[in-house]
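Task card 7
Instruction: Convert sequence to structure tokens.
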Amino acid sequence: MELKKFFAIRKIYALKTVERNGTVVTENDIERQESSAEHSWSAMVLADWILSNFEIKVDKLRVFELIMYHDLVEIHAGDICISDVEGRAAKVEEEIKAAKMLRGELSGDNGFGSRFYDLFMEFEEQKSIEAKFAKMVETFDAALHELDHKKNWEVWTKEKLYFLKMKYFEAFPEIKKLFIEIADWVESEGYFNQ
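Output:
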């Protein structure tokens, strides 16, 4: 294999540098923003945990692939916070444009660019049970991550949380119940309306 073709994979390493709204506190108590790559990793771990603890019939490898690649578009499009209504209005269009750009940058004889693009579109279109599960997990991961950062909840209400996230849990009633229990706990601990 030509090194040039192999080095194309380095493009996706840029996901490590894309910052999200989530906060990470280092062992030295230094705050920084979570990267999209960290979010993808923790979402895969959460998916594995859920699938190990609940009876959900999905193709686990497909779920991992969808989660692993779903945010690569942020290399070009950046991350848009779920509460950024204006930014989210153009999100789908910008991310599809970024997906097409990445497909070209990652393409070679091995078809990796097309494989990434197909996975991204499956995730976006939400037509398979695996895509729905991956989206639910990706959504759940963001909320779960913020449980360690109470101050980041100051702009949230329970109603806003349900309005923006609950639709992703409808196909998975047991996980929806868990999400509601967590939302109740968040409310009882004073995270909302600080």
